[in-house]
Write a structure and sequence with these properties.
single chain, 553 residues, alpha+beta, six-stranded antiparallel sheet, six-stranded mixed sheet, 26 strands, 29% helix
Length: 553
């Protein structure tokens, strides 16, 4: 229908039952230079707002064709998403009950990611998705307010997006910033480095609940002995810290920036917007932080390299638990990460099972019956056999220093290369190196009794056919940075289980990434505006911890 027809229809609905809004479901509204489709109609004004999908043909938006090149699509749509959030916010207001007259999408964080709020379609068209709270007072339709949204506010929002073509230089700068980081990610891999941190980077955040860079923070400066230079596609030459793949130990006193450095490396899996301070902090997209997770679920994981036969007689070559201890949970997480083919494992002494990390000579002599095989003794073998880099934050024991390839001391947020000095002091000391046995990939075969997965905030709830429910907090996964990623994972789990996908863990990760590469269309109908791209690794992380997940040998 034409927009004028919609306005007349809404006028007739004034004061009538809210349920009559349902007539608009899947209705296509024709505007002068774009189309709008109402893909979801909320049941009442307090429910999650309705979803509108706006299709803007290239003849209307007239953005440069260079923005639609495959390598530029992610940063281009990311830029548009940020603008869409800001523009919608200016037009959003409260006008009645519940979510009435709300217009918007979640605010994107400082990570450059693909989001369902903006996607590129055929023939360089643009699809915008956002929430609209259909207005009502109580359960009575406010037709005039609804008409105002669709007749005035929506065209104004779309116009604001189309006018962004006048900011081509700013958009291109956003793209160039992204491409520089993508190049760095490929470069460190080709050179055999674990990560890169550019000089001048600002690693500390404003607070534990903020992603803004800390004001007046100490800027990162690489030790000369570990510094490298690289020329970026933008022709900038940057210098910073690059550590060859192996074992890196980060040490130092409390509150001197050890954990901040480790977290920055973890978030280096994502590209950052200019001004974030971490634009030159880059690591492999296959980087995972492992930690102790008391009480987590484990499904048929071979943890025998870390934990031998338990005192109970239980074998650990095929270990399962509904309430794992700190050491068994961390052993499982390391094994699962290696099974998934990660390229860099991070761990922090503060969040680890210390008895799994190391054991000094005195304790070895005192404890004769010990099923735990320390991780530190196997690090050299892990790196050699799996070609996975290891970065650990440790300051309570000198034992890990014996086998480290590089040692960085953090003092007042500044890194110092103390490798040579430490090696001289430890010249006559050695640590027994134990053989690590790489895990054989398990096969994922679904979730027993699965009905559906649903995300709310940073939690995923699995509902089973018998009415039971299981809830998992995804905030425990340090790779997840936006709520939209959690929602995407829930959709993927539904997708896998309903299609009864059965694959080995490495194959499943590749399969998920292939599905996601096709966009969000395959995951949901209608597509909500608040999905954010993830990696198959993150889906496996969740499946490994879900009650009744089926993993076989």
């Amino acid at each position: 229908m034409e927009i004028d027809d919609l306005v007349r229809m809404l006028a007739k609905l004034e004061g009538k039952s809210y349920s009559l809004y349902r007539k608009l479901r899947n209705a296509t509204i024709i505007y002068r230079n774009f189309k709008l489709k109402l893909t979801k109609i909320q049941g009442d004004p307090h429910a999650e707002p309705s979803i509108v999908e706006v299709l803007i043909p290239s003849s209307s938006h007239r953005f440069s064709s260079k923005f639609f090149k495959e390598k530029n699509v992610t940063p281009f749509t990311d830029y548009i998403s940020r603008s869409l959030h800001s523009i919608c916010k200016k037009h959003s207001e409260r006008c009645g009950s519940g979510n009435s007259c709300y217009i918007g999408i979640p605010k994107p964080g400082p990570w450059i990611l693909r989001r369902s709020s903006v996607e590129v379609g055929e023939n360089k068209s643009l699809t915008l998705r956002f929430y609209v709270g259909l207005p009502a007072r109580g359960r009575r339709i406010l037709g005039s307010e609804a008409a105002n949204i669709f007749h005035k506010k929506v065209p104004s929002i779309v116009k604001g997006i189309m006018l962004l073509r006048e900011k081509s230089d700013e958009i291109m700068d956003h793209i160039v910033n992204y491409l520089d980081q993508e190049y760095l990610r490929s470069w460190i891999k080709s050179k055999g480095y674990m990560f890169f941190i550019g000089n001048g980077s600002i690693l500390p955040r404003e607070s534990s609940i903020s992603q803004k860079p800390l004001k007046n923070a100490v800027k990162f400066l690489s030790p000369k002995t570990l510094s490298v230079k690289v020329k970026l596609p933008s022709n900038r030459v940057v210098e910073g810290l690059a550590i060859p793949k192996g074992v890196l130990i980060i040490t130092g006193g409390g509150y001197h920036g050890k954990t901040t450095l480790l977290k920055a490396i973890q978030e280096g899996i994502y590209d950052h917007i200019r001004g974030d301070g971490r634009e030159l902090v880059v690591s492999s997209e296959k980087t995972v932080t492992v930690k102790a997770e008391d009480g987590r679920i484990i499904h048929h994981v071979n943890i025998s390299s870390f934990i031998r036969k338990l005192p109970s007689g239980e074998l650990t070559v095929d270990f399962s638990s509904l309430n794992a201890s700190g050491s068994t949970s961390m052993a499982a997480s390391i094994t699962e990460a290696l099974e998934a083919g990660v390229e860099l494992i991070l761990f922090d002494e503060d969040t680890s099972a210390t008895n799994l990390l190391y054991k000094d000579e005195a304790m070895v002599k005192i404890i004769s019956e010990e099923p735990i095989v320390p991780l530190v003794n196997q690090l050299r073998s892990i790196v050699k056999k799996t070609y996975t880099g290891i970065v650990g934050v440790i300051s309570a024991s000198s034992i890990p220093l014996y086998i480290a390839d590089h040692i960085i001391l953090m003092e007042k947020y500044m890194p110092y290369d103390i490798t040579e000095n430490v090696k001289k002091k430890l010249r006559n000391k050695q640590l027994a190196t134990l053989d690590f046995k790489p895990p054989q990939p398990r096969i994922f075969a679904g979730i027993r009794g699965f009905k559906k997965a649903k995300a709310r905030g940073f939690k995923i709830t699995i509902t089973y056919s018998n009415g039971g429910k299981f809830e998992l907090n995804i905030k425990d996964n340090p790779r997840i940075v936006e709520k939209g990623q959690v929602k995407t994972i829930a959709y993927i789990i539904n997708y896998l289980c309903r299609r009864q996908i059965r694959k080995s863990v490495p194959e499943l990760i590749e399969y998920i990434n292939d599905v996601l590469s096709k966009g969000f269309t395959t995951l949901a109908k209608p597509i909500p505006p608040d999905l954010t791209m993830v990696n198959g690794l993150d889906v496996i992380w969740v499946l490994n911890r879900v009650l009744n997940a089926i993993f076989t040998k």
